[in-house]
Amino acid sequence: MSQHLFILTGASRGMGLAMAEQLLCSDNFLLCISRNTNGALTSLSEKLGSKLEQWPMDLEHSVETAAMLTQWLQSRKTGSFASATLINNAGVIPKVAPLSDSDPVDLARALRVGLEAPLLLSAAFLHATQAWNIPRKILNISSGLGRRPLASQSGYCAAKAGMDHFTRCMALDEALNPNGAKVCSLAPGVIDTDMQVQLRNADASAFPDRKNFVDLKSSGRLTSPADAATQILAYLKRPDFGHDPIADIRD
Fold first, then answer.
1. What is the mean pLDDT of the chain?
2. CA-based nearest residue to 182, from 138, 142, 141
3. 3-state secondary structure of 206
4. Class of domain 3-190+224-248
């Protein structure tokens, strides 16, 4: 049988890297789109004999990246893959500060990487694969912060809230198609990543919730990237994936 295609953004570190490593351990074709390539992933794919491509692309340039993805998908032969899945995992957290003290360039980057890029990549994926008579899925990695507000994080919260809502719209679109893709925006829980470090190290005077994030780390309530990746990929395999376009791994 043909391999399963996975397209993963933000795969060079953290939870994205953990997902990439686990996907390479099965018979998959993995395309990673990240600001930088990861040498350890290349070595792992060579060791396992897995199919891997890495594109060193800054997702702030979302139009160009989506165009590349369209061209790449359209160049694949019919029947190349048994299924196709896009995982929009990449995101950036802007400076932890009230909106009034935020840098416009920093905010724009957070929205481009966290919202604009997933939207355009999803559109490119759906368009280029719509004639593929195989199961297709889109998994957007969201956050609880897209569903509840957090002071000094307007940019990140807005990006994730927007991701949730365009996923709802996408689900309605795909439900009208005979071979519509299954889509879901999934909150993965609280992961021990660089984002958590940034929040814990923020200026307490500008970030009233800082203590809560410090306590999450000190009390051992953060999930490791590897464990989170395992839970997310297991959720992706569930037979009811996409039944609810908005979900939380903790439910």
1. 95
2. 138
3. coil
4. alpha beta
